[in-house]
Amino acid sequence: MVGTDTYYSGGCFCGAVRYEINGELTYAGNCHCRDCQHAIGAAYVTWIGAKPGDFKVTKGNITHCETSPGIQRGFCGRCGTSLTFRGEGWDELGITAASLDDPGAITPESNVFLDHRQPWAPYDETARNYPRFP
Ligand SMILES: [Zn+2]
Ligand SMILES: [Zn+2]
């Protein structure tokens, strides 16, 4: 159960970018990959997934950076909060759970890229866990 709601709202730290999700989430999980560590500046990132059509920016604009070929990471161009992740051709959009107005509304149910996990980053060994991408 990633979350029971069908409406979520969130935004960046400074408030310049606001978004809404209208629909059920497709996943919620922690990514420990080295790219996320670098891009976000933390040991891992909790991502939630949504169908791209269910995600709407309601204020401001998301700035994108192609951090690897075909991978677009979205953030606030003013304060730098990481907001989105999308791979070319993917039918879902990743959104940083911590940018939700109520991050406690979701429950991460998996860990991916544990091969890249930092030894000082604890994780739930009872979750669905994968050494790389499942
Ligand atoms: Zn901002
Ligand atoms: Zn990652």
Which SSEs are present, and which pair or pack?
Elements: E1 7-11, E2 18-22, E3 27-31, H1 34-41, E4 45-50, E5 55-59, E6 62-68, E7 71-76, E8 82-87, E9 93-96, E10 110-112, E11 128-129
Parallel strand pairs: 3-10, 10-11
Antiparallel strand pairs: 1-2, 2-5, 3-4, 4-9, 6-7, 7-8, 8-9
The structure holds zinc ion (2 copies).
Order of helix and strand elements from N to C terminus? EEEHEEEEEEEE
Distance, first to last CA: 18 Å
CATH C-level category: Mainly Beta
**What level of helicity do the residues show?**
under 10%
Could you describe the 3D structure shown?
- The protein is mainly β.
- The protein is 6% helix and 40% strand.
- The protein has one domain: Metal Binding Protein, Guanine Nucleotide Exchange Factor, Chain A (Beta Complex).
- It is built from one helix and eleven strands; from the N terminus they run βββαββββββββ.
- A hairpin with a 5-residue loop joins strand 7 and strand 8 (82-87).
- Residues 31, 33, 35-36, 113 line the site of one zinc ion.
Summarize the structure.
By secondary structure, this protein is mainly β. It has 1 helix and 11 strands; from the N terminus they run βββαββββββββ.
